[in-house]
Design a protein that fits this description.
Length: 222
Amino acid sequence: MPSLPLPLALTARLSPVVVLAAAGWALTSGPFAAPPAAAHKPAEAKPRTQTASAPSTSAESRTYTAAPAPCDSVGKKTVASLVPGAKTAGKEIPSTDTQVRRTCSWNALKGYDYRWLDVSFEILASDEAAAASYRSATAKRSGGGDVPGLGDGAYSVVNLTTEDKQQTREGVVVARASNALVTVTYNGSDFESKKAPDTDTINKGAIKAAKEAVAALEAGRG
């Protein structure tokens, strides 16, 4: 009876419940939007270059002083759509300073389909510091493209990886709003076909979650 080797990177991230679910299934059966007007489809290979600019000499501004509750930043319907079978409440990741950085995760294995969604907020000292961090973060993720109309700047990229013949496709959206950074990670795999969801599905899902997260940040201003 064939077994189902899970990719090491995914295995490390799966919750104990999901691991048990996957193991039980193996023993018994074997083997992400931008609105249409935006029409944004990031390539998976086209290189992106970043040009560093000199730090601003203007007075520093600071709009946000604390990160919002990350597990409330994405609507329950969106969570249910992007991560079928996941608890919509999510799980907040422990942070050494919740005023500065907060992250929530949702993940689930439903049947053969696995999905993972992370939403993270980081509050920096100023708009200038956030802009510098945004440039650095996007420069490290080549092959994507800008997302218009999201915060003061946003960038998305989708990549495909294969491990032990199992494909995983992951989308990352990094958005800046004033002195805050919002990072969304969304990925998925199909353990029956060993294929990954298509690029459009992952990209649109990540952008949808990022738009809701940025809106939640802006709603909590002041």
